[in-house]
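step 3/5: co-fold with protoporphyrin IX containing FE
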Amino acid sequence: MIPFTPDVDDIRLLIRITARSSMLLFLLAFTASAVARLWPSARSRWMLRHRRQIGLMFWASHVVHALAIGALAVWAAPELFAQLTPLPSRVLGGAGYVALIAMAATSNDRAVAWLGRARWQRLHSWGAHLIWLVFVMSCVKRIPLQPVYTAPLLVLLAAMGLRWWAARRQPASQAQAAPLPLIKASMTPAPLPPSGSSS
Ligand code: HEM
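step 4/5: write C-alpha cells
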C-alpha cells in the first residue's frame, strides 16, 4: 500500500505540461516533410532527417501524460478525473493512444518490410491524423471557458493547411513516393518483399 497521496494540482500540472510538450513535438514531426518540401534548407532537411527521433520523443512525452492520468484516475482524485474526462473524451483520447502505440511499435525498418510500404504509410498517415484530431478536440472543448486555447487550435489548423499545401504543390507521382507519415522509419528504405506478398 502506498502511504501518501500525491498533490492533485501537481499531477494536473504534469498532465498539462506533457500535453503541451507532446503537442510541440507532434507538430514538428507532423509538418517536417511539408516544410522541407515548401522551404528546402539545411534546417528543414535536418528536421526531416530527425523526424523519427522527434516522433519517438513525442511518444515518450505521451507515456508520461498517460502515467500522470493513471495517477489522477486511480490514486489522487478519481472523482475529479471522472469529471474532467466525459466518455467521448476517453474514447477519442483512448483511440489516439491506440494509434500512437501502433505507430511507435512499427517505427522500424522491419515493420515496414513486414507490413509493406503502402500499408505502413496508411497506418502512419491515419494515426497522425487521428492524433491531430485529438489535439484539436482537446483545444476546442476548452475554448468556451478559456478562449486562450484558440491559439493552439489555430496552430494545429495551420499545420494541417501546410501539409495540404505541400501535397498539392507536389505532382501525384512524387507524392506517392514520399508521403507524410508522423513517426518515420529510417531514411534508407529497407529492402521490401516481392510485390504482392505484403499488402
Ligand atoms: C493521443 C491522445 C491524447 C492527446 C493528444 C491528449 C492531449 C491533451 C491536451 C492537448 C490536453 C490539454 C492540456 C492543457 O490544458 O494545456 C490534455 C489534457 C488532459 N488529458 Fe489528454 N490527451 C490524450 C489522451 C488522453 C486520455 C486517454 C485521457 C484520459 C482518459 C486524457 C486525460 C486528460 C486530462 C484529465 C487532461 C486535463 C488535465 C487538467 O486540466 O487538469 N488524455 N490532453
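step 5/5: annotate
Residues 175-180, 185-199 have pLDDT under 50 and may be disordered.
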